[in-house]
Design goal:
Layout (H helix, E strand, L loop, with lengths): L7 H13 L30 H16 L5 H14 L2 H15 L11
Length: about 110
Amino acid sequence: MEAPYDGTEVTVVMEEIEGAYTYASPVPSKKKKKYKSPGDHGEKAKKPRSAYLLYYYDIYLKVQQELPHLPQSEINKKISESWRLLSVADKSYYLEKAKLEKEGLDPLPLVPH
């Protein structure tokens, strides 16, 4: 029979294996840099609001206070329906306000109807 196994060969093998590998820290990925023009200081120009959005912002709080139990999706449906039923004269106020905002002029005062 063979002599009892004392584990020294495994230790030698493990030392050889551990010494063969080198550990490297992960290299951060290289991302492309976005070059900004000299006049750009991280501020993005806002897109002008549509006539519907101007109407939505004017009426939203009123609808939410009248119907506090409704979920957001139902409030949006109510506002959308009221926009569709709005008279041409009332819509023209918001259309004009949106046009002025698009041109970069001061919007009309908040006096709808």
